[in-house]
Amino acid sequence: MHDEVIVRSGRSNDRLVEPDVLDILSAEERKRFIAFRNPLRAAHFADAHTEARRLLAGLLGCGPAEIRFGRHPCAGCGRTDHGRPYISRPRTRWEFSLSRSGPYWVCAATDGVRVGVDLEQVRPMDLSSRAPSILSSGERRHLDGVPVEFRAAEFIRCWTRKEAVVKASGIGIEAALGDIDVRPGQTRARVIHKAPGCAFDTWSVTDLRTHPGLYAAIAVPAFS
Predict the structure, then answer these.
(1) What's residue 224's pLDDT?
(2) Confidence band (pLDDT; 50, 70, 90) for 164?
(3) In sequence order, what are the residues at sequence separation of 6 or more whose Cβ sits closer than 8 angstroms to the Cβ of residue 103?
(4) DSSP codes joined into one string, 139-177
(5) Are the CB atoms for 95 and 109 separated by under 8 Å?
(6) How far apart are CA 208 and CA 8, in angstroms?
(7) Which class for 220: exposed (0-12), middle (13-18), buried (19 or more C-beta within 10 A)?
(8) Which residues on adjacent β-strands are paired with residue 69?
(9) Which residue from 9, 11, 13 is spatially nearest to 40, judged by alpha carbons?
(10) Which of 74, 118, 149, 186 has its Cβ near the most Cβ atoms within 10 Å?
(11) Which residue, among 188, 190, 184, has the nearest Cα to 203 in the 3D structure?
């Protein structure tokens, strides 16, 4: 893993958002906050984005409300509504990635290096319909060797690794996840994935320690 990687995670409080928290968010973030029909989900969103801003503010030497974000065009379709996020103000080399799942969040920041992070809760699912399109043939063989009661969790573990990689590469939701093998038998893996416009095709993927019932992973370019 690259030396200049900072990771923070936490759990949002199950309470309504205080006005001073909303003051930290941008107009676009406040618009997204208002769009939530569930007040608790809105609070989780606001808390996660506020904590990410506080982390970045400490690295950038500015106030959390001063930070402005933008998005690169998606490497797959060119749209900017789901492209890789970046800090547009203040000007900086720092890159970041934020992921949420329910009340939980994780944010990673790197000094001048692409990064992707993902966090998912383990939940019941029909693996027979999901696995063929999301897992590679090697990952499906790995899953077949896992006791049945642990397969949903192992599937989510693979999924977070894939999402971390495609977020770092900039292709995001346009990626063909089944073409990416994240080597789930290894705690830290070198993963091959090439996206248009991205100079890197080899990624270092690592599982992150998190709360029970959750899986998280981080991906950065593999330089050696």
Answers:
(1) 63
(2) very high
(3) 11, 12, 14, 44, 47
(4) HHHHHHTS-GGGHHHHHHHHHHHHHHHHHHHT-GGGS-G
(5) yes
(6) 10
(7) buried
(8) 87
(9) 13
(10) 118
(11) 190
Q: Which DSSP helix (H) or strand (E) runs through 34? A: helix 27-35
pLDDT at site 113 = 94
E strand segments, the chain: 5-11, 68-71, 85-89, 94-101, 104-111, 116-121, 188-192, 202-208, 214-221
User: Residues 104-137: pLDDT tens digits?
Assistant: 999 999 999 999 999 999 998 899 889 999 999 9
pLDDT at 157: 96
Q: In terms of Cα–Cα distance, which of 118, 130, 124 is closest to 150?
A: 124
C-alpha 29/C-alpha 40 separation (Å) is 16
| Bridge partners, residue 7, by sequence | 108
CA distance 30 to 46: 8
Pick from 61, 52, 71, 57: which is nearest to 8 by CA?
Answer: 52
Nearest to 169 by CA among 143, 203, 195: 195
Of 37-46, 79-88, 159-168, minimum mean pLDDT range: 79-88
Which token pair is 167?
A: 């977020």
Q: 74 φ, ψ to 5°? A: -60, 135
Work out the end-to-end distance of the chain between its first and last CA atoms, rounded to an integer number of angstroms: 10
pLDDT recorded at residue 3: 58
Q: Summarize pLDDT for 17-64 with one digit per residue, the tens.
A: 777 888 999 999 999 999 999 999 999 999 999 999 999 999 999 999
